[in-house]
Design a protein that fits this description.
single chain; 307 residues; alpha/beta; Rossmann fold; 6-stranded parallel sheet; two-stranded parallel sheet; 10 helices; 12 strands
């Protein structure tokens, strides 16, 4: 039995589907069944499920605005969920624990492409520092539990994700979902201009959600190492270029205005993904253009439910 926390969320729903397609028995509880910030709830879940493997995807996260407003909550929730899940996995003797990390944990001015060895060379970008440090701390715990208790804890560092089923509510959404909603709304309303946070120069790497799910399942099956592994698409795009691409797909022809009074976030972000390929054969398959088109198509059909 594989226990997947966050299995009804954006990424988790794809991971669960891919596991079941491969014939695995999966338990993915709804978040209202067990509060993963409470050890008693986690212990009760493990008693019922008795998993052989755990993929811990549940997280408190959001865009730049949410990270700034809820930094304390994001730190507490992620630390408590991850630490107590790993402890329960240790006590129950699971054969593997997969912890999902984030590219937000890298130092603000990490040289591109980000190598796993760069993770501790400074503090994360301040707008998501609390979230990034909480996730980084869980890597330390995974390695400590491996060293002392022999827990096979694997840590994957994911870059920015996007795709169908993403979170499109403005305060919660990440860059791609936020820009798609902004462009679609502007086109529908006949707006002559949209405003985008930052100055447009920040760069990001984006990974299509199904590719990310494939990587997680492949790592669960094939990787047993204690060192973190980057999971990304290997390509970098500026927010300006991304916005123009999305506007073109949507068919929005109005003016794009950037607001430099709002934070850019990390100046540059692209991961070195060579270890994922070498260690368990993962390479992203979906180009940014193809993935954006699929995401826009889904949002146009599901937009009233997704926003």
């Amino acid at each position: 039995m594989i226990l997947v926390t966050g299995g009804h969320g954006f990424l988790g729903s794809y991971v669960v589907e891919k596991l079941r397609e491969r014939g695995y028995l999966v338990f993915a509880p709804h978040s209202n069944l067990y509060d993963l910030r409470k050890q008693a709830d986690i212990d009760a879940m493990f008693h019922v499920v008795r998993p052989d493997k755990v993929i811990h995807l549940a997280a408190a996260c959001g865009g730049i605005g949410a990270n700034q407003e809820y930094s304390g909550k994001f730190f507490y929730d992620n630390i408590m969920m991850g630490a107590q899940m790993l402890e329960a996995a240790r006590v129950s003797g699971v054969s593997k624990f997969v912890q999902i990390g984030t590219a937000c944990s890298y130092p603000k001015h990490t040289p591109v492409p980000f190598k796993e060895e760069d993770l501790w060379n400074g503090f994360p970008e301040s707008t998501n520092g609390a979230y990034g440090v909480a996730k980084r701390a869980l890597l330390t715990m995974c390695q400590a539990y491996r060293a002392q208790y022999g827990v096979n804890a694997v840590y994957l560092i994911l870059t920015n994700l996007y795709g169908p089923r993403d979170e499109f509510r403005p305060h919660r959404s990440h860059a791609v979902a936020a820009l798609i909603k902004k462009c679609v709304d502007a086109k529908c309303n006949g707006d002559s201009e949209i405003t985008v946070w930052g100055d447009g120069t920040a760069t990001r790497e984006f990974l299509y959600v199904e590719d990310a799910a494939d990587a997680i399942v492949m790592a669960m099956e094939k990787y047993d190492g204690g060192e973190p592994v980057n999971i990304g698409g290997g390509q970098e795009v500026s927010i300006l270029e991304l916005t123009r691409t999305i506007a073109g797909i949507v068919g929005y022809s109005g003016n794009i205005r950037f607001d430099p009074s709002k934070p850019n976030g990390q100046p540059k972000r692209r991961l070195d993904v060579s270890k994922a390929k070498n260690l368990f054969g993962f390479e992203s398959k979906t180009s940014l253009g193809e993935g954006l088109s699929k995401t826009v198509e889904w949002y146009l059909k599901e937009g009233s439910n997704a926003a």
